[in-house]
């Protein structure tokens, strides 16, 4: 049987996507189907149960993995010397899903990256756990980690910035 927290997480994920329906099959004959604006149906060997789902909001943009967002640092008009131009281009590594952020592969391990670390495109930077599945998140570009925006074990939302990355 599915836990209520797992069903709620599925509903949130569906709500944020442009999918209209998703079916998850468990062990044996367990199966849950979620449909936007039409309800939730839980099938467990014998009888189906239906409950109304929350009103879905249209997704602004849905992608397989959340792309980095380019952010221009505002330039202050001061009489002082100009700041390093390379620090003006900061991009964020975003969470591609709702889940729990983990900075290392296990509690005993070192974090994948720390502030100041140089990362290469395709290098694993963290794990986002969703529905008991560990999803490794990879850097989408070369750069330097200038800030880690979430704490280990923190719940993250779809599209939430996880790292600030200075592009090379």
From TrEMBL:
Keywords: Biotin, Fatty acid biosynthesis, Fatty acid metabolism, Lipid biosynthesis, Lipid metabolism
GO molecular function: acetyl-CoA carboxylase activity
InterPro entries given in the database record: AcCoA_biotinCC (IPR001249), Biotin_BS (IPR001882), Biotin_Carboxyl_Carrier/Decarb (IPR050709), Biotin_lipoyl (IPR000089), Single_hybrid_motif (IPR011053)
A GO CC term attached to the entry: acetyl-CoA carboxylase complex
Record-linked CDD domains: biotinyl_domain
Compositionally biased region (Low complexity): 58-68
Domain Lipoyl-binding: 90-166
GO biological process, one term: fatty acid biosynthetic process
PROSITE patterns (alphabetical): BIOTIN, BIOTINYL_LIPOYL
Pathway: Lipid metabolism; fatty acid biosynthesis
Region (Disordered): 49-88
Basic and acidic residues biased stretches: 69-88
Pfam family, one: Biotin_lipoyl
Role noted for this protein: This protein is a component of the acetyl coenzyme A carboxylase complex; first, biotin carboxylase catalyzes the carboxylation of the carrier protein and then the transcarboxylase transfers the carboxyl group to form malonyl-CoA.
Record protein name field: Biotin carboxyl carrier protein of acetyl-CoA carboxylase
Native source organism of the sequence: Alkalihalophilus marmarensis DSM 21297
Classification of source organism: Bacteria, Bacillati, Bacillota, Bacilli, Bacillales
């Amino acid at each position: 049987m599915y836990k209520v927290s797992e069903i709620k997480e599925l509903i949130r994920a569906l709500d944020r996507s442009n999918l209209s329906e998703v079916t998850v099959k468990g062990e044996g004959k367990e199966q849950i189907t979620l449909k936007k604006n039409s309800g939730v149906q839980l099938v467990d060997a014998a009888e189906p149960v239906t409950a109304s789902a929350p009103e879905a909001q249209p997704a602004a943009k849905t992608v397989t993995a959340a792309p980095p967002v380019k952010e221009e640092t505002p330039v202050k008009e001061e009489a002082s010397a100009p700041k390093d131009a390379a620090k003006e281009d900061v991009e964020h590594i975003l969470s591609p899903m709702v889940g729990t952020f983990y900075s290392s592969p296990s509690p005993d391990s070192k974090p994948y990256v720390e502030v100041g670390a140089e990362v290469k495109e395709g290098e694993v930077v963290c794990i986002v756990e969703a529905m008991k599945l560990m999803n490794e998140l990879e850097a989408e570009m070369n750069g330097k980690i200038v800030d880690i925006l979430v704490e280990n074990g923190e719940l993250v939302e779809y599209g939430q910035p996880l790292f600030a990355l200075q592009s090379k």
